[in-house]
Specification:
ABC_transporter-like_CS; 2 domains; seven-stranded mixed β-sheet; P-loop_NTPase; alpha/beta; Lipopolysaccharide transport system ATP-binding protein
Length: 409
C-alpha cells in the first residue's frame, strides 16, 4: 500500500515505512505467469500472502523506519542488498508486496541516471515536466528556472535534447531540479558518483542548505560521503536490516567489517629482478590477516625481499590506499640503504612509521621497489598489507590530526 499526503510544513515525521517487503522472480517467464495469477487473485479479492513461490526471493523484507524534517538517513550495503528497490518503492515507481509507506509532502528523487527525463525534449522542457510532477505551477517553476540552469552549469546546452547529454550533464540537471525545487523529501541514489569532484562538493553544499527543512534519504558506497551528511543509518544485507540507528559510525564499521577478509596481494608489475617474500606489521595484532592498530600508534613495517639479480639495494617506497582505493599517503623513508647485495639472497628491511593520524577505517599498503624514487620500477605489489585504524570518531576526512585546545584569556 502506498499513501502520499500533502501536509503543512509544521508536521515532523515526513517518511514512515512499516514492515516493507518486495519480492522478485529470478525467471522472467515464471515471473510473468505469477503476475497474471496475482492479477486474477486481486480481482477475486484474495492475496498470495507472504510465502515465497518457486524462483522468488525477497529483494526487501521487513524494513521499517521513520524520518523527520532535518534528518538524513544513509542507506548502505553491498550491491544487491535491496537499496535501489527500497528507493523505487519510496518514490512510487513500484508497489510493495508487504507493508506500508507514508510520505508527506513533495518528493524530489534522483534515483537512476536520466530517470524522469524525456530524452527527445530539451533540458528546459524537462525542468517544466519534472516541476509539474512535483506539483509546482508554471509560475513557480519560472521563478526557479534560472537558479536550476545556473546550478546545473548547462546554460549553453539547456535547449538541447537530453538524449544528447553526457552522463555528467544528466546528473547535474537531475540534482539541480531535485534540490532547487526545495522538496519536503529528497531521495538521492549513487548517481552522484558520476559527477566530477567540483560538482559533488556543490551538491553537498546544496544538501546542507535544504536539510533543515527537508528529510533526505541518501544511498552511497562511499562511507566518507555517508558520514559527511547522515545522522542515522540503515545497513541492508540481502534485503533485510542488519543494523539501524543513529550510531552512523557503528553502521559504517559493520559495513567495512563485511569486507575484512585476508585478500591476496596483487603483483601489478615485475621485471623479475626481485620478489617480496613477506610484509608484516611487527608490533600490531593480526586478525584473519588484518592488522589492528589504534589511532596515534607508531608501527614497525617489516618486509623481506628476495634479490634475484640486482647488484645493490633498491629504493623502497609505500603507498596507502583507503577502502575506496583512493591513494591518500606515501611512505618514503628519507634515509634509504644503499649497498651492494648478492644474487639469490633474502634481505630484511624495517621501517618505523610514527604517530599514525589516519582517521578510522580500513587501509591497504602498496609496496614498490625501484632504482630511485619513481624511476625504473623493478617490482610493485598492491595489498601487501591490510590494516584497520580504530578510533571513536568517524570523520569525513582521511586524517585526524592530533591537537590540543587551550583556553587563552
Amino acid at each position: 500500500m502506498f499513501d502520499t499526503q500533502h501536509i503543512a510544513a509544521s508536521e515532523e515525521v515526513l517518511v514512515k515505512v512499516e514492515g516493507l517487503g518486495k519480492k522478485f522472480c529470478k525467471d522472467l517467464k515464471t515471473g510473468l505467469w505469477y503476475g497474471v495469477k496475482d492479477l486474477v487473485s486481486g480481482v477475486r479479492g484474495s492475496t498470495q500472502g507472504s510465502e515465497l513461490r518457486s524462483k522468488e526471493f525477497w529483494a526487501v523484507k521487513d524494513v521499517s523506519f521513520e524520518l523527520r524534517r532535518g534528518e538524513c538517513l544513509g542507506l548502505i550495503g553491498h550491491n544487491g542488498a535491496g537499496k535501489s528497490t527500497l528507493l523505487k518503492i519510496l518514490n512510487g515507481l513500484i508497489n510493495p508486496d508487504e507493508g506500508k509507506v507514508t510520505i508527506k509532502g513533495r518528493v524530489g528523487a534522483l534515483i537512476e541516471l536520466g530517470a524522469g527525463f524525456n530524452p527527445i525534449l530539451s533540458g528546459r522542457e524537462n525542468i517544466y515536466n519534472n516541476g509539474a510532477v512535483l506539483g509546482f505551477s508554471r509560475h513557480e517553476i519560472d521563478e526557479k528556472l534560472n537558479a536550476i540552469i545556473e546550478f546545473a552549469e548547462l546554460e549553453e546546452f539547456i535547449d538541447m535534447p537530453v538524449q544528447h547529454y553526457s552522463s555528467g550533464m544528466k546528473v547535474r540537471l537531475g540534482f539541480a531540479v531535485a534540490a532547487q525545487m526545495e522538496p519536503d523529501v529528497l531521495i538521492i541514489d549513487e548517481v552522484l558518483a558520476v559527477g566530477d569532484l567540483g560538482f559533488i562538493l556543490k551538491c553537498f553544499k546544496a544538501i546542507d542548505t535544504v536539510l533543515p527543512n527537508t528529510a533526505v534519504i541518501f544511498v552511497s558506497h562511499s562511507m566518507p560521503m555517508i558520514s559527511r551528511i547522515c545522522n542515522q543509518i540503515i545497513l541492508l544485507s540481502k534485503g533485510k536490516t542488519e543494523f539501524q540507528g543513529e550510531n552512523v559510525s557503528k553502521g559504517i564499521d559493520l559495513y567495512y567489517n563485511s569486507f575484512l577478509t585476508n585478500e591476496d596481494s596483487d603483483v601489478v608489475f615485475t621485471d623479475n629482478s626481485l620478489e617480496l617474500i613477506s610484509a608484516t606489521l611487527e608490533n600490531a595484532k593480526s586478525d584473519n590477516g588484518i592488522y589492528k592498530i589504534n589511532w596515534g600508534d607508531t608501527i614497525n613495517l617489516k618486509c623481506t625481499i628476495k634479490n634475484v639479480n640486482l647488484n645493490k639495494t633498491p629504493f623502497l617506497s609505500f603507498a596507502i590506499y583507503d577502502k575506496e582505493q583512493r591513494s591518500i599517503a606515501e611512505i618514503i623513508p628519507l634515509k634509504q640503504i644503499t649497498k651492494e647485495i648478492e644474487h639469490n639472497t633474502e634481505i630484511e628491511f624495517l621501517i618505523e612509521i610514527k604517530n599514525i593520524n589516519l582517521s578510522k577505517g580500513v587501509y591497504n599498503i602498496t609496496f614498490s621497489a625501484s632504482e630511485t624514487l619513481s624511476k625504473n620500477i623493478f617490482y610493485k605489489v598492491h595489498k601487501a598489507i591490510t590494516f584497520q585504524v580504530n578510533h571513536d570518531l568517524q570523520i569525513w576526512n582521511p586524517y585526524l590530526i592530533d591537537s590540543e585546545l587551550k583556553y587563552v584569556n
